[in-house]
Amino acid sequence: MFLTNILLKKAKSKNILVLMESAVSGHQFSMIRERLADKLELQRFDPYIQRMSLYRERKRLRSLN
User: Oligomeric state and partners (predicted)?
Assistant: First the structure.
């Protein structure tokens, strides 16, 4: 491998933007997490049903710097 290939190689970002979705109502929002971390699951207030609900990571949207 040539030295120029190593120098021009693009670095991966540390954080990514992911889409979170409610398991109950389908309400969605985006959140930032580290690339190497596990998939997110958290409890948060769901405005559709006016209660706390479980949100799971649905898909990766984009990389962030």
Answer: Component of the mitochondrial ribosome large subunit (39S) which comprises a 16S rRNA and about 50 distinct proteins.
